[in-house]
């Protein structure tokens, strides 16, 4: 009952209201970049609809007086069953960007995955995370020495894993951004990891501070390599000892290939409906992927999680943990570090109550028995 006696919240509790406030405070193009998706945005909506097709079935008289929100991922105990998803170029939402997010997350023991396209260099964000788990998301550059340099820097800075995002070798057809003629990277935002990288800098005639246009041109040339194949994963192996996870897997055959490639984990995700318009809802893809890997690799999940009940459903369908995406960014836009922190505190409180009300004391007890298909 205590949470009802803590006074009026500083920001909306309901995520839909928080999003509405973010829309009010952000420039139109920044809000559209954050909230929008690919093409018709049909996949973005499908992600949400998929959660409604599963219903939780609570159990009673099972002693849920103490709840444990921790889970084990990659041999490490995380104090929460979620990490923050990699979201690029947070400087368009708040000037303290990823540093504000890292401070808020670290203060609550919540792990974070940092995007390659961050507004502050990875070393600075790692420092803000301290001992709280932080992983580095790699947009695998088409320039092999640059890819190796990113991996070495992440390892040296203390990141605990590399998350290779597979689904963004082209930026998709995003109608809102095209209409706004907006792509923050072209304005040299979100490129801190490139601009501070020795390999990237060595490839330029003048440093990015002197000639940002040439630096942005080089970035757009080296950002990705659509020619990569499964065989190329060996390159990453050669350049890092960190566990590797593949983000964006939706097909059971791809999941089996990931197992064959020996990766530590996969993240079932459709990038929040921002890449392939019409793609399968991530939650709809999850059960078949979990079945295909048969426990041989860790399965994580993102795309569409807004409340604790969504998280419970994803774990019940076989995800070990999940990533939270847009919601924490709405907190960042509205109130900076304090906004992220308040969103996370609310999410954690919701999670603790929802787990207990489902009749489970820990996530080890959350499985298919918690769910039935909805109407
Ligand atoms: C504005 C924005 C930027 C993103 N940038 C990245 C990124 O840099 N790297 C990445 O792997 N995923 C990125 N994603 C995808 C997220 O990691 C995650 O998959 C997605 O937000 C999940 O969907 P949800 O926010 O609807 O829950 C981005 C998503 C958004 C909304």
Please describe the topology of this protein.
Elements: H1 15-25, H2 28-35, H3 42-52, E1 54-56, E2 71-73, E3 76-78, E4 82-84, H4 97-107, E5 111-114, H5 122-129, E6 134-138, H6 144-157, E7 162-165, H7 175-180, H8 192-195, H9 198-202, H10 212-222, H11 233-239, E8 244-249, H12 252-260, E9 265-268, H13 282-293, E10 298-301, H14 308-316, E11 321-324, H15 326-357, E12 371-373
Parallel strand pairs: 4-5, 4-11, 5-6, 6-7, 7-8, 8-9, 9-10, 10-11
Antiparallel strand pairs: 1-12, 2-3
Helix pairs in contact: 1-15, 4-5, 4-15, 12-13, 14-15
Bound molecules: flavin mononucleotide.
* Mean pLDDT across all amino acids: 97
Kindly provide the radius of gyration, computed on alpha-carbon positions and rounded to a whole number of angstroms.
20 Å
Bound molecules: flavin mononucleotide
What does the largest sheet look like? 8 strands, parallel, barrel
**Intertermini distance:** 32 Å
Give the percentage of residues in beta strands: 5-15%
Uncertain ranges? none
* N-to-C SSE string, H for helix and E for strand: HHHEEEEHEHEHEHHHHHEHEHEHEHE
Give the overall shape: globular
Helix content: 40-55%
Q: What's the helix count?
A: 15
Quantity of strands, as a count: 12
Q: Strand sequence of the main sheet, in spatial order?
A: 4-5-6-7-8-9-10-11
